[in-house]
């Protein structure tokens, strides 16, 4: 007799691709499982004008509604991009049941036709507009190209590239417009998921632009006491990705960062050792604190806590507090 398992996800092309991947893996690992994908149009999908801060950051915009459906019992699980999940708050009653093997975690540059990276580098960005909604990417962009104009840019991955190509203006919350953009900074993994990897003009190395905590990792949340569902997800959980998840999110927890905090954290595993680097920037990109440590891979939270505390010792709290919305 088949067992039914309902997974909630956003309606975007990328979110659906990620969730269908989870469903395929579950079906292969547990043939008795009947997986149903339930599509949600979250507030972050319906409102593509406002800054995400207006909805409580990515957590409020993309995560909260699907989480609520799991907690009420309408769903057994929710699919999230791990980087969209707030790391500085508890989620009573829920647990990350599985993480898929990490996709490329780096950020990438997408350019309009006729423009090259060297054009932007030579001018230090002067005269060019680069689109992103992520304060971390904006801060790093200003460090790399000090004269660049960073503009608010929203939409699903494929939508953003279409707007870049068509020269479309981005509507602003106050009714105005900005743009058109000359370039975009986006996650490589997202571009790959929607078949647009060919548009990548440059991959930023972690040294140029440290990824967001959890970037490139697909996570599945379920009820903490739903042991049958947790058992199924344990079959598809990638151990290395879960260790990185724990280390990087521990940094967010220690820093108590909010959705307007330019915070980055990225770990790698080699044998039994984990290397973790995390940074805190101000939004202008001028102030910058970075910490790297190595520790046992099987103790990721301890490593994340040590890195987070060292960042605080070096003054990260003051930068985060200045960026906190009024």
Describe, in plain words, how this protein is organized in 3D.
- This protein is α/β, with parallel strands linked by helices and 326 residues long.
- It has helices at residues 13-29, 43-46, 57-71, 117-122, 135-144, 157-166, 188-193, 227-234, 239-255, 300-313, 316-323; strands at 3-10, 33-40, 77-81, 94-99, 107-111, 129-132, 149-152, 170-171, 177-178, 183-187, 200-203, 218-223, 263-270, 273-281, 288-296.
- A five-stranded mixed beta sheet has the order 2-1-3-12-4, sandwiched between helices.
- The chain is globular and about 65 Å long.
- The chain starts with a strand and ends with a helix.
In which range does the helix fraction lie? 25-40%
- What general form does the structure show? globular
Main β-sheet: number of strands, strand sense, barrel status? 5 strands, mixed
Secondary-structure element string: EHEHHEEEHEHEHEEEHEEHHEEEHH
Q: How far is the first residue's CA from the last residue's CA?
A: 55 Å
Structural class: alpha/beta
Give the neighbour order of strands across the main sheet.
2-1-3-12-4
Q: Could you tell me the number of beta strands?
A: 15
Mean pLDDT: 90
Low-confidence stretches: 44-61
**What is the C-alpha radius of gyration, as a whole number of Å?**
19 Å
Strand content: 25-35%
* Tally of separate helices: 11
């Amino acid at each position: 007799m088949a067992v039914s398992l309902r997974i909630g996800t956003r309606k975007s092309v990328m979110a659906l691709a990620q969730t269908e991947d989870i469903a395929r893996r579950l079906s292969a690992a547990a043939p008795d499982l009947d997986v149903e994908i339930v599509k949600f149009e979250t507030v972050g999908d319906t409102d593509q004008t406002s800054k995400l801060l207006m909805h409580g950051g990515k957590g409020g915009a993309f995560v909260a509604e699907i989480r609520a459906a799991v907690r009420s019992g309408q769903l057994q699980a929710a699919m999230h991009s791990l980087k969209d999940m707030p790391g500085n708050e508890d989620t009573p009653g829920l647990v990350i049941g599985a993480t898929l093997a990490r996709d490329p975690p780096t950020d990438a540059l997408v350019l309009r036709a006729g423009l090259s990276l060297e054009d932007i580098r030579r001018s230090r960005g002067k005269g060019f507009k680069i689109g992103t909604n992520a304060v971390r990417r904006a801060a790093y962009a200003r460090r790399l190209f000090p004269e660049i104009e960073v503009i608010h840019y929203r939409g699903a991955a494929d939508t953003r590239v279409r707007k870049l190509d068509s020269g479309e203006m981005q509507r602003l919350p106050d009714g105005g417009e900005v743009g058109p953009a000359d370039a975009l900074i986006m996650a490589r993994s997202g571009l790959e998921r929607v078949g647009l990897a060919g548009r990548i003009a440059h991959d930023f190395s972690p040294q140029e632009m440290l990824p967001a905590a959890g970037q490139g990792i697909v996570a599945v949340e379920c009820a903490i006491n739903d042991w049958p569902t947790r058992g199924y997800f344990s079959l598809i959980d990638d151990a290395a990705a879960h260790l990185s998840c724990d280390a990087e999110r521990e940094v967010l927890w220690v820093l108590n960062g909010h959705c307007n905090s330019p915070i980055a954290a990225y770990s790698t595993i080699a044998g039994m050792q984990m290397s973790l680097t995390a940074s805190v920037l101000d939004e202008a990109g001028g102030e910058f604190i970075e910490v790297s440590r190595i520790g046992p891979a099987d103790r990721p939270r301890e490593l994340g806590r040590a890195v987070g505390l060292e960042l605080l010792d070096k003054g990260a709290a003051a930068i985060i507090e200045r960026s906190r919305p009024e």
